[in-house]
Amino acid sequence: MIDNKHQIPREHGQAGEKLAMNYLAERGLNFVEANVRYKFGEIDLIMKDGKEWIFIEVKYRSKAQYGGALNALSPAQIGRLRRAAEHYIQIHKIDAVCRFDLIAIDASQIHWLPNAF
Questions:
Q1: Which of 26, 31, 80, 88 has the fewest CB atoms within 10 Å, i.e. the most exposed one?
Q2: What CATH number should be reported for the domain holding residue 100?
Q3: Spatial CA neighbour of 55 closest among 26, 32, 39, 27
Q4: Taking a C-beta distance cutoff of 8 angstroms, is the pair 34, 46 a contact?
Q5: Cα–Cα dist 62/55, whole Å
Q6: Of residues 80 and 12, which shows the higher confidence score?
Q7: Residue 9 contacts by C-beta under 8 Å, 6 or more apart in sequence?
Q8: What ranges make up the beta strands (E) of the chain?
Q9: Has this prediction a pTM greater than 0.90?
Q10: Are 97 and 112 in contact (CB under 8 A)?
């Protein structure tokens, strides 16, 4: 039996990540990696702006109900993203300025919050 219930959000998430990547690339950021997963957290996008490394969380909502994508990031999710980024920085021996951005997509609107947390 196929469980499409869990597949639909993943497809939306992947579409949102692709939109976010293109949006940021159009604004001069350089793509490094996507969907970096560790057992304790995931990084949706990693990009660079010059020498600065940017770890990006992408939130996509097809409707703006319940606060929309801008309000969809929990403190627990922020903690998991930070742990994943710290691990990525250590294993890749990155010695540079880093920041955490949020891309929130509600239907067709994209909101970019640099240094979101």
A1: 26
A2: 3.40.1350.10
A3: 32
A4: yes
A5: 23
A6: 80
A7: none
A8: 30-38, 41-49, 52-61, 98-106, 109-113
A9: no
A10: no
